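Q: Could you write out the predicted structure for this multi-component system? I'm mainly interested in how the pieces pack against one another.
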Amino acid sequence: MAELLLIVRLAGERVALPASDVESVVEIDHVVPAPGTPLHVAGLAALRSRVLTVIDCPAALGFAPGGAPHRDAVVAVIDGHPYALMVENVEDVVEGDADPVPLPVRTAPLWRRVAKGMVAAGGELLLLIDVPALVAGPASEAA
Amino acid sequence: MDDLLNEFIAETREMLEALSGGLVAWEAAPDDRARLDEIFRFVHTVKGNSGFFDLPRIKALSHAAEDALAAVRDGKRRPDHALVSAVLAIIDRISELAEQLETGESAGSEDDTSLIEALAEQAPGPETRAAAGTSVPVARGASRTIRLPVELLDRMMSGVSDLVLARNELARQLRETGAGGDVSACFERVSGSIADLRDAVTRTRMQRVDNLFAPLPRMVRDLAAETHKQVSLVVDGGDVELDREMIEMLRDPLTHIIRNAIDHGIEPPDDRQASGKKPAGTLAVCARQAGNQILIEIRDDGRGIDCEKLVAKAVSSGVMRADRAARLRTEEQAALIFEPGLSTAATVTSLSGRGVGMDVVRANIERVGGLIDVASALGEGTTLTLRVPLTLTIIPALTVGAAGQAFAIPRSAIEEIVRARSQAVRMETVGGAAIATIRGRRTPVLFLRQLIGGDAPDEGADQTLIVLKLAGGRIYALAVDEVHDHEELVVKPASPAIMTAGLYAGTTLADNGRPLLLLDPSALAARAILSLDEEEKEESSGAGEARGATARGLETLLFRTLDGGRRMVALGAVERIDEAEARQIACTAGRLRVTLDDRILPLEGCETIPDTPKVKLLRLTDGRSEIAYALDEVLDIVTLSAPMRPAKQAGPVAGVALVNSEQVELLDVHWLFAHRHDIAAGDAAGAPVCLLVGADPFLDTILRPVIESAGYRVLREGDAGAEAAATVIGLAEDSATAPLLPASARIVRLRARPEPLGADDDSIHRYDRDAILKALAGPARGRRRK
């Protein structure tokens, strides 16, 4: 059986996240800034009794920070820390048509770091996102 | 003790459950080294614990089994079927005895010696298993404690936190809609129960480190008695709170470490005296919180680790190849004690030795995400440092606001809170750096607004200063816009992305449900020092000021100041350490002075006369004159190896340097002497000289003692040095004084009559003591005679 995928729109593009990396989809209503942190960290948000580190996905890719009033967020837990990935839109959870395959072409430079491959879903090809790489943000490359 | 015993029983049972599969596997494959180690650790742990609880039967059994297994581990013996059976029989018996302990039934009269004898190499095999096989499961008595998985407590904790947030939300809505009295009363009850529940659940996870340290005094006493050693135990930091699970995980490692320290570290009294130490060894155990970690340090002043022997042993036992061993650094050599199967102990005792223990200790510490370090100096002692994370900790915190955002500060770091505008505080800016003088104590000021990337507050903005105390006694003031509230917060580790800011110790939820960042006071200070460094570089490139030179290798005396801070001073400038009574100190001529050996020395290091009966003093000398510096106690002599960071502005402190990773200020001796104008040039004795001129017996019999008791050296005309005297007292009615007077001297003229001699008379009545002393010390009241 093919992998379940969460289809979201981020930085103007429809992409797929492995559903196994995603804990839930929530609406974030208040983000407390965390001064001094990297640009792609939008701040902190409370989800019930947990504190989520909010990731501004466009900034994490290296685009200008989104800052748009989108409040849809994808919750992912990486190394025990919960993160909220702010995306423009959460579409649906679908089953991939086939297993993901490596990308046959070079993607645009900013996407390359987070690209895990591509996957067909609903007859359409989508970029499969590496969630931990997205959360790590652009700075991690230099390190 | 009952609690501990129950712990022991429960723990033994748990270990047995975990081990039961391993026992069978070992029986099937006696050569399996991993199984052997597992069983060996079990009997070793049981042996240690039973020694502590005085359970002779269990101890004898486990010791025998350990001996046999150790022989197998060392390759001296083959694990044959007979041995396996005998060990299994012993483990069964230990399990039975533990059950009996719990149910309170008598341990019975069963004979353990046959089991122990069965371990012997030539023992006849098959029957021994049967001896143990007869054991019947004993009915367990009702227990008053239960063990819960920590995950369950975690779930309770997060459930209660949700409950609190929901309550707060409900409270807001009730306020807005204006609920009736019945509903309000009901809500209050719910609210109160939730608060109690939260408190209880919180407590279930938190324990003071005291719980971990409480058994230590008894344990150390018993171990010392058993090894015929004298050990004094120093325990500190018991009020640090730690996750219960963490405390449980630390119990065994700590026990092992202390056993090792007493058994192998601390020498017998005779040996200690022979090497010039006190007969009683010192074992210090202290816990403290450092950022988001808890540090537990176990320090002994024993013989230390013989690294050479350890390396040789590691090579001979095949743990490490000789070429690799030769390249080890000193720290790495000492760290070999954590390798399985290594020990430098020459004799095997019932306490420890055989190299088990330290590898188990390290495994246990690492399992909770901690680290263990060892530092040792041969002949001087060993220090083991455990660092464990502070995963789920409730800390009392102060919430503050800056630039419209709230932050939390751990209350343990806060010394006091003062308004910047209050009368006790003077705020100054020196070369761009802000300094606050709070009741005479100077502290650097950091603006939280700036630290979080904002602008400095406006001049005269109403800031509140949070005086924060760092490890090592250094303090600084954090200026915030407002102080909100005291809250008890559940701190969770922040994600790596947040930690990169280098400002925070963790995240938490405030009572209003908003996330809150917990500031890390030492990280804030470190950041501020860093920025100071950078600015300093720019400045010194232009000025090339010699004051900025690093004091590499400078020998310094480390001491505690009267206000509790730690400072140091170049050792060469210290003539000696003295002691004065408070009455020897006086505020004269606008500054504090102390009378020592009939001389007056300017006194530094305090702003007011200390309120203790006696004060310790450093006597600093520049070769010609002396200054006294008041201090609380002398701590140590240290050689500065780290470069000194120069102070931003010239002052009593030349700069700051790291001493044992703590920031310590270095006194600027040059500045101290340069700013003591009242030390007369060429006056080696330091005390000011007063020349009495005139023949009136009043001068010698009545006036002279007064002047001398005020700390002056009194001379008469014709004495050596008289012409250099800075102050001259003469009699207004005596016209014979004039010719003898040095031109530069300050003249004080005394008159016999209370009323002035004329309209422009500047003389002082000769019994007006205050006026005379004032005239001597301060700027001359009287006009100088031409």
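A: Regarding packing and overall arrangement: Chain B touches chain A through 31 residues (CB under 8 Å).
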